[in-house]
Amino acid sequence: MKEKYLIPILIFFVLGSAAISRIHSLSQTFKSFFYGTALVVLLVIGMIRTYHYFKS
Length: 56
Fold this sequence. Notes:
Blueprint: H1 3-22, H2 28-55
Transmembrane segments: 35-54
Keywords: Membrane, Transmembrane, Transmembrane helix
């Protein structure tokens, strides 16, 4: 994954999760979907980075 895409993706999901939790007008279904998507994306990025670390 390109480094220039990594930081904006991380910032979007980490800060987005904090912002989403503070907005009470959003439905719980949307919040759960966003949290689940963020969790999957961050885990995949972490696994890819770990794989590249141990590969080199």
